[in-house]
Amino acid sequence: MKRIQLFFIGAIVALIAAGQMSCSSRVAARTEQAETIRQQIESRHYTIDVDRMLPMQGASKHLTTNYSLMIKGDTVISYLPYFGRAYSVPYGGGKGLNFKACLSDYSLTFDVKGVARISFRTRSEDDVYLYDTEVYNNGAATIRITPGNRQGITFYGRLKEEAKPSE
């Protein structure tokens, strides 16, 4: 009977040790991912792939086309759909949220949990926009856009992992 008890105690200790090693490796992987995301955001060269949108009026919509928001230094490339009320638009409807423009008032801060909060203004041929973006440690992102002549809209997606340069 003592042998069986010792066997079970040994097995439990082995499982606990294996679980702790597994947990510590997961924590290390999450920390490494968070650091990679932070470096990517700080470099101001990143892409957020968008898969869902939430207009001010109406239900959330899943997107099947590859939409994205790209930041390349002082330039924003916005390729996003727009649904909502427009107060004033150019003849023919304009280009909406599809444009390439310069950034102004770019601001980047990290909160205590490591969430990146990015804010900037930009101007297209059609309108002036305020972008407020949050990128979480796991790569999930929320983009809130406030146009000057349309209702605001929110997008959800993920930070695209950039290919690491070969050494």
Q: Element order, helices and strands?
A: HEEEEEEEE
Sheet with the most strands, sense and barrel status = 8 strands, antiparallel, barrel
Ends distance: 59 Å
- Spatial strand sequence of the major β-sheet: 1-2-3-4-5-6-7-8
Task: Record keyword descriptors for this entry.
single chain; about 170 residues; eight-stranded antiparallel barrel; 8 strands; elongated
Description:
By secondary structure, the protein is α+β, with helices and mostly antiparallel strands. 25% of the residues lie in helices and 44% in strands. The protein is built from one helix and eight strands, in the order αββββββββ. The protein has one helix at 2-42; strands at residues 45-55, 61-72, 75-80, 97-110, 116-123, 128-135, 140-147, 153-159. It has an eight-stranded antiparallel beta barrel with strand order 1-2-3-4-5-6-7-8. The longest helix is centred in the N-terminal third of the chain and has 41 residues, at 2-42. The protein is elongated, with a radius of gyration of 22 Å. The N and C termini lie far apart (59 Å).
List the helices and strands and how they pair.
Blueprint: H1 2-42, E1 45-55, E2 61-72, E3 75-80, E4 97-110, E5 116-123, E6 128-135, E7 140-147, E8 153-159
